[in-house]
Amino acid sequence: MIYQRQIAQETEEKQLSELIASGADVELTEIPDLTPFKDAAAGVYDKYHATDMGKFIEILETVKGGMTKFW
Q1: What are phi and psi of 38, to 5 degrees?
Q2: Considering Cα of 47, then 35, then 67, then 9, what sign does the dihedral take?
Q3: What distance in Å separates the CA atoms of residue 51 and residue 70, rounded to the nearest whole number?
Q4: Rounded distance between C-alpha atoms, residue 31 and residue 26, angstroms
């Protein structure tokens, strides 16, 4: 896991625990399968990849270690 994401996850977990401990009414929704979202967003990705933004997308993909279309 990338360090920044690890810190963000730890911070979010701590904040959530503090909210629950303070008595806040918290309802979490987990989405176990992101495939429908990824499929729906694929057209947007392809649209911008085919423009001048494509160069920047490729740079990001390289920096992130050859990521796929979605994180």
Answers
A1: -60, -40
A2: positive
A3: 18
A4: 16
Q: 3 vs 6, 7, 50, CA distance in Å?
A: 5, 6, 31
Q: What is the pLDDT along the chain (71 residues), one digit of tens a residue?
A: 578 888 998 999 999 999 999 999 999 898 889 899 888 888 887 888 889 998 888 888 787 765 455 44
Measured distance CA(20)–CA(13) in Å, rounded: 11
Half-sphere exposure at residue 25, Cβ-oriented, CA atoms within 13 angstroms: 0
Torsion angle of the four alpha carbons 42, 48, 53, 56, in this order, in degrees rounded to the nearest 10: 0
- N- to C-terminal Cα distance for the chain? 11
